[in-house]
Amino acid sequence: MSLLPLIPLFPLVGAAACAILHARTLAARRRDAGAAQNERVVGAIATLAIVASFAVSVAGFFIIQHEPERRVAWIVSNWIPTGGQTIDFGFVLDPLSSVMCLVVSGVGALIHMYATGYMRGDKGYARFFTYLNLFVAAMLILVLADSLPILFIGWEGVGLCSYLLIGFWHENMKYAEAGQKAFVVNRIGDFGFLLAMFGAATWCVDAAGKGSFQFAAINESVLAGHVEPWQVTVIGLLLFVGACGKSAQLPLYVWLPDAMAGPTPVSALIHAATMVTAGVYLVIRMHPIFDASVLASSVVACVGAATALFAATMGLVARDIKKVLAYSTISQLGFLFLGAGCGAYDASFYHLVTHAFFKALLFLGAGAVILAMHHEQDLFKMGGLKRALPLEYRTMFVGAAALAGIPLMSGFFSKDEILGGVLAGRPVFGNEQINLVLYVVGAATALMTAFYTFRLIYLAFEGESRSNEHPHANPASMTIPLAALALLTIAAAALGLPSVFGEFKPLEHWLNPVLELGGESGNAAKAHGLSHSAQWLLLGASAAIAMIGYSLARATYGGGLAKSRARAEAMPGIYKTLVDRWYVDELYHAVFTKTLRLAGVVAGLFDAYVVDGAVNGVAASAKRAAAAARGLADGKLQSYSLWFGAGAVALVAAVLLLI
Amino acid sequence: MTFFGAPVYFLAVALFALGIFGFLTRRNAIVVLMSVELMLNAANLTFLAAARGTAHVHEASAYAIFIILVAAAEAAVGLALVLALFRIKQSTDLDVASDLKG
Amino acid sequence: MNDWILPLLVGIPALGALAVALAPAKRDGLFSLALLFCAAEAALAIFTFTKFDGTNPNEQFSFSRPWFALPTGAGEAVPVAFHLGIDGLSLLLVALSGLLAPVILLSAKGHIERREREFLVWSLVMIAGMQGVFLSRDLLLFYFFWEISLIPLYFIIGIWGGPRRVYATVKFFLYTLAGSVVMLIALLYLAYNFGTVAIQELSTKDIPVRAQLGCFLAFALAFAIKVPMVPFHTWLPDAHVEAPTAGSIVLAGVLLKMGTYGFLRLGVGMFPAAAVQCGPWIAGIGAAGIIYGSLLAYGQSDMKKLIACSSVAHMGTIVVGMFALNAAGLRGGILQMINHGLSTGLLFLLVGVLYERRHVREIAEFGGLAQVIPAFAVVLTVATFSSIGLPGLNGFPGEFLCLKGAFDASPLLGAAAAVGTVLGAVYMLSMLRRVAFGPITRGENQKLIDLNGREWASAIILLIPMVWIGLQPSLFIKPTEPAVDLLISQIEKGRRSLALENGASLKIANAGAAETGKSGGRR
To answer: What are the chain A neighbours of B102 within 8 Å (beta carbons)?
Structure first.
C-alpha cells in the first residue's frame, strides 16, 4: 500500500519546512536584530504535519482490518545490497505497529499543539519544531519498520533528535552534556543492537539455510527451530542490551534523569510517551526469540523488576518535579520489561499505551506548572497551586491517579495485568518461586509509585504556597491537550479490562495475530491462567497498595513540609543515599568516564613515546650513524685522496680476487 | 728483461713513492703540487725506460711529451688555485682549506 | 571516443598544471584557471560514473599503449604499458577524487597567501597523480603514479604548512617512501620472475604460495603505512596538523585510500592465497587500530589532531571490512573509503574555516559557536554525525557493511570493531559539544563570521553525496558488485591453493572447486 510511507513522510516534510523557516529567521535576524519569527506559521505547519500522519494512521488502522492477515506492507527492495541477506527498505502496518503509530502520532499531535504554547517567544522556535517533527518521523519509521536495519534507522534517528532536543538550549553546557550523555549511553546499547542484528541475520536461517534481516523471517526461523538455542539466547541478550539503552533500564538508565534538561514537551513526547518505549516494542516485536530462550527472557524480567524498584526509590525523594516523573518513567518501563520478560506481552503493551497517555499528561501538566511558576522546578518551592491552576490540577490528578494505580483508572488495570502476568507467567529461570519474588518487588514498587505520585500532587498543588512567584494562567493551546490526554487516560481503561469483567479485551484481540505467533507458547502466561477468584484477590491487593501509598503521601505531605523533614532527619543515611541517587552517577563517572579519559591520555603518551618514539628512534639512529661517518669527511684534500686511493686499491683487489 | 731488472725502474718507483708521500703528508699547497709533478715524472721515466729498445719508442716519447704538457697545464691551474686560496685564507696551508668538512 | 575518458581524467589536471605554470595571469586569474580545470575534472569524473556499466566486472574504457620495456639479463624484455582502466573497485574512488578537486582549490583560496602559482600547480599535479593510481592497470605505471602523488604533498605541507612543517613533511615523505621501496623490490621480483607487470595478467598467474606471501607482505607494508594502520600511523597526525586545509582534505579524502585500494587491487587481487593467510591478522590489527585510534582521538585537544586520529580509527574499520574477505565486508570497505573521504574532508574543511578566522585549532579556544555562527554549527553537526555513522547519512551503510562482514568472518572480530561505534560517538560528540555548544567563553569568538559563499560551495559539494549515499546506498554499491564478486572468486582460488599447499586432502580442494564451479555457473 502506498499509504504507508506517507505516515513518516508528513512529519519529515514538516521538519524540512520548519528548517527552511528557521534558516530564514536566522537570516532576517542577522540583517536586523529585531526581526520576529512567524511562530504561528511554524506551529501550524508542525502540528498539522503530525495531525496528517495521525489521519493516515487512522486510515491504515481501518484498512488493515479488511486485510486477510491484518497487515499491509510497503517495500523498496535492495536498499543496501549486502551480498548476503539483502536489506530492503520496508514498512509493515500490522496490529502492533498500527497501535504504535496511533499513539505516536496522536499523542505527538497533542504535544505539538501544547508546545506551540509552551515554546512561545523562544528564539529557537522553528528549530524546536524542526527537531520535534523529525523525531516523530524517526519514531514512526521505527515502529513501521519491517526489518531490524530499518528499525535501526528510526532507532538512531530518535536518538539523534533526543540528543538535539535535550541539548536544545545549548548555551547551557550542562544541557549539552546531558544530550551527549544520552547519545553515548544509547550508543552502548546500540552496540548490542548491532551485534544482535548481525547475529539474527546470520544465524536465523530458514529451511533453505538463508538468513534475513526481516522480523517475520527471523521470528519464523526461531519458531521453526532452525537456530541453535545458544544463538537464540545470545541474540536475545544482545537485543536486550539495545533495549536497555533506549528504554533506560539498569545499568544504562543514567541518561534519562539528565535528559530532563530538554524543554518539557520533549520530556513528555520523547522521554515518557514514545521513544523510551521503543525497547519494549522491540522485545514484543521479536518475542519468539524471548519465548525460545529462558535465560534471555528471565534476564529481561529480572532487570525490569530491579529497575522498577530501584528507580522508584529515587523518585521518593526527588525535589525536581520533572525528575520525579523521570524516575517514575524509568520505573514504569521496568514494569513493562517485567511483564514482557514473563511472557505477558499483551499486558505489557497495554501498560505501554496507558503509560503513554498518563505520563505524557503528567509531564505536560508539570510543564504547565513550571511555566506558570516562571521556570521553577523545585517541588519544595511550590504548593497551593490548586487555586491558581484548577484545570492543571484536575488533569494532573487524573494522571497521578492512573500512575499510582488508583482503582478504575487505566493505570490500575494495566499494572494489575502485568502483576497478574508475572504471577501466572512463564517461570523465570524455570523457577516459579522467582515469579513470586518478582511479584513482591512489583507490588513494593507500586506502593512507592503511589506514594511519590501523590507526594508530587500534594507538594505542588495542596497546602500553602511556598513561593513568592505569582503563577500566571496558561494559554488554551496548552490546556486543551491536557484535557484531551486526561480523557484518553480515563478511556484507555476500556482497552484491556481484566477478564473478570468479561472477555471484552479489544487491545488483546487486536494484537493476537502478532502476539500469538507460534501459538500459545509464551502467551499461555496471560492472566487467563488465573482463576477469577485469584484475579479478584490480585485486584484487591493492587487497590489496597495504591490506597496505602496515597494515604502515606497524604499523611506525610498533607500538612506541608514539616513532617517530611522530620522523617528525612530520622533516617539521614538512607535519605542522603537516595537524594544522591545511590551514587551511581559518581560511580560511573569514576569507573567509566575517568578510565576512558585516562586511557586516552595513556594512549596519547604511549603513542608519542613508544610508537612514535620508535619511528623517531629509527631516524635518530640513522642520524647517529651519519654523525659517525661524518668524521671521514674532514675537509682535507689529502685524506680524501688517501681514502680514494685505498678504495681504488680495494676495488681492484676485489675484482682480481673474485674473477 | 724483467720489469724490475733495470735500476732505472727503482729510480721511478722511488720518485713515485716520494711523490705520494709528499702529496699525502705535506701541508703546503705548493709542495703538494711539486709532489704531483714528481709522480708525473716518475710515470714519464717509466714510459721511456720501458720503451727503450722496442718498436714503441716513438709512441712512448709522444706520451711523455704529452704528460709534460699536461703537467705544465696542471701546474698553471694548480698555482692559480693556490693563489686564489692564498687570497681567501692568507695562507697556502692545506689544513686551513677544509671548508668541506662535514 | 570512450577510450579517451581515462587519459583525460589524468590529463586534464596535468594539462591544468602546465597551463597554470605558464599562464601570464595574476592571482585571481590563475585561481580561476585552475578552478576551471578542476571543475572539468569533476564533471568528467561524474560523467564517468554515469557512463560506467555496473554489470560488467571487468575494466572499462580501457586505454593501453606500449610504454617501454624492462630489459632482463636473459630472456625477453618485460613490456610495460601505459594502461589505464576502470572497474568497480576504482570507480567510486575516481569519482571521489574528481569531486574533491574543486573542493581542494576552493578551500585553499583563503589560506594560501604566497606563491599561489606553485600551490595551484602542485595541487593539480597531485590530482593527476591520484587519478593515475586508481586508473593504472600496470604495476609499474601504478608505482609511477604512486610516487608522483607523494611529491606534491611534500611541497604543499613543506611550503604552506604550519610551524613544524619541515619535521612533518620529512617524516611523511620518508615514511611513505620507505614503504614504497619495499614495494618496488617485490614489483621487480614479479617482473623478472613472471615476465609481466600487467596487473590483470599477474592476477591470473599461479604464483606459488610462498612467493605470494613474500610479495604480499612487501606490498602490505607500503599500503599499511599509507592507510595508515597501527603502528605505522604516527606520521598522519603530524602531517595533518601541519598541512594547510587543502592538504588535509586531500590527504584524508583520497591519499589514504590509495593504501586501502592497493590492498584490494594488488594485495587481494594478485596474491589471494597470501591474503587469505594473512587476512585474520590484518583484520585484527585493523580492529586494534579502531580502538587505539579512538582512544588517541579522545585524548587530543587539537581539533585537527583529533580528526586525524579518528581517521586512524575509521581506516581501521575499512581494513577490517576488507579483510573479512566476504562480499559484505568488501563492499562496505569500498563504500566506506568514499564515506570517510567525504565526512573527514568536510570536517577538515570546517576546521580550516575556523583556523582562517582565528588562527588557532585548540578545542578550548572555542565554545558556543552555535550561537554566533549557526550555519557553521549545522554543517559541523552533520559532518560529525556522518562520521559516527548515523543512518540517513553516508557513514551508516558503509560502516554497517564493514561490521557485518567482520561479524560474518568472526563474531568476535565484529564485536571488537563495533566498539568503535561507541567510542566514535564519545570523542566526536565531545568535540562538537566543546566547539559548538555551551556559553561563548572567548570574546574573539563573538565576532566570527559565518560560512561565506566559497565555503558554502565546497561544503555543499561534499554534503550532497553524503546525503545521497545515506538515502540511496544501493546506487553506489551496485556498480561495485560484479568487481567484488570477481575478487571473491579470486579469494576462493586463493583458499584452494592454500589448502593444496597445506597438504590438505585432495577432497577439500575438490569440494571447494565444485562449490566455485556452482557459484560460477550461477553468475
So the answer is: 630-635
Please work out, in degrees rounded to the nearest 5, the angle formed at the alpha carbon of residue A177 by the alpha carbons of A252 and A152.
Answer: 50
Domain extent for C420: 2-522
Instruction: Measure the CA–CA gap between A70 and A513, rounded to whole angstroms.
Output: 8
Give which of C175, C176, C234, C339 to mutate to test A binding, by max A Cβ within 10 Å: C234
Tally of domains within chain C: 1
Using alpha carbons, list the distances in angstroms from residue C481 to A285, C119, C279, C334.
33, 38, 21, 10
Nearest to A49 by CA among A21, A27, A72, A73: A21
Cα–Cα dist C418/C324, whole Å: 14
Return the H-helix or E-strand segment holding C84.
Answer: strand C78-86
Q: What is the DSSP string of C48-69?
A: HHHHS-TT--S-EEEEEEEEEE
Task: Please write the tens of the pLDDT for every residue from C433-450.
Answer: 999 998 988 888 888 888
Mutate to test the interface with A, among B21, B82, B98 (most CBs of A within 10 A): B98
**Which chain A residue shows the shortest CA-CA distance from B95?**
A636
Task: Give DSSP secondary structure letters for A172-189.
Answer: SHHHHHHHHHHHHHHHHH
The pLDDT of C305-313, averaged and rounded, is 94
Name which of C447, C345, C354 is nearest C387 in CA terms.
C345
The proportion of chain A whose per-residue pLDDT surpasses 90, expressed as a percent, equals: 49
Q: What's the gap in Å between the CA of A657 and the closest CA on chain B?
A: 23
What ipTM does this complex have?
Answer: 0.91
Closest chain C residue by Cα to residue A86 = C328
Handedness of CA A11, A15, A16, A21 (dihedral sign): positive
Provide the CA C409 distance to its chain's centre, in angstroms: 23
Cα distance between residue A471 and residue A480, in whole Å: 19
Cβ pair A81:C368 closer than 8 A: no
Over residues C425-435, the pLDDT tens digits come to 999 999 999 99
Distance, CA of A287 to CA of A282 (rounded, Å) = 8
Q: Do A170 and C437 touch (CB under 8 A)?
A: yes
- Quick check: A351 and A402 in contact, CB under 8 A? no
Q: Which of B23, B32, B101 minimises the CB distance to A634?
A: B101
Are B27 and B98 in contact by the 8 Å Cβ rule? The answer is no
For residue A641, the distance in angstroms to the closest alpha carbon of chain B comes to 8
Cell numbers found for residue A141: 519509521
Give mean pLDDT, residues C148-169: 91
| 8 Å CB contact between A372 and A385 | yes
